[in-house]
Design brief:
Layout (H helix, E strand, L loop, with lengths): L7 H20 L1 E3 L8 E3 L2 H11 L1 H18 L6 H19 L5 H27 L9 H31 L2
Antiparallel strand pairs: 1-2
Helix pairs in contact: 1-2, 1-3, 2-3, 2-4, 2-6, 3-4, 4-5, 5-6
């Protein structure tokens, strides 16, 4: 799933975006009392998206999966951590792969939509496993859509600027 060789630059970027993903998830969130299974709306997808779009699949997978799973482990949502690690790492990896080296607004939008589909399907399956029925997980879908949409509204306009600024980081040794 992750590149065979991760260089120091990629590891450092992954560490920074892991920390940002954790902080944006842990400290910028709203718990939802309206659904049977609780739920949480957070802004952790913003650094995940930026990391994956700007620095690729390795940074996206590592920072998203570990950053959000770490939140689960440290905030009492421990049962969710393995699911989060896999689902969010897959989101970041997929986004980075879609972006590749060819950068365009349409690719950003496709990458975000793909991440949203992975998030909705992944957490629906996780909730079916945890709750043992197919109905209860349906209540989480609007919150997941809202999370992805909020991140998209913020990331889409700034991603091209950040990619341009990061060019020096990406292509220098």
């Amino acid at each position: 799933m992750i590149q065979k060789k991760i260089n120091t630059k990629t590891l450092a970027l992954a560490a920074v975006f892991t920390a940002l993903t954790y902080v944006f998830t842990a400290f910028i969130n709203i718990r939802l009392p309206i659904t049977a299974n609780g739920g949480l709306i957070h802004l952790g997808n913003i650094p995940l998206f930026i990391g994956a779009i700007t620095f690729g699949s390795s940074v996206g997978a590592i920072s998203g999966g570990i950053g959000m799973a770490l939140f689960d482990l440290l905030s009492g949502w421990t049962v969710w951590a393995p699911f989060t690690l896999v689902i969010v790492a897959l989101m970041g990896y997929t986004m980075g792969k879609i972006m590749g080296r060819s950068y365009s607004m349409s690719r950003i939008i496709i990458a975000i939509i793909s991440a949203g589909i992975i998030k909705i399907a992944g957490y629906y399956i996780a909730e079916v496993i945890l709750y043992g029925n197919f109905a209860t997980p349906l209540t989480s879908i609007p919150g997941n859509i809202l999370q992805i949409s909020a991140a998209a509204v913020i990331v889409i306009p700034i991603a091209p600027l950040l990619k341009k600024a990061a060019t020096g980081i990406l292509y220098t040794t």
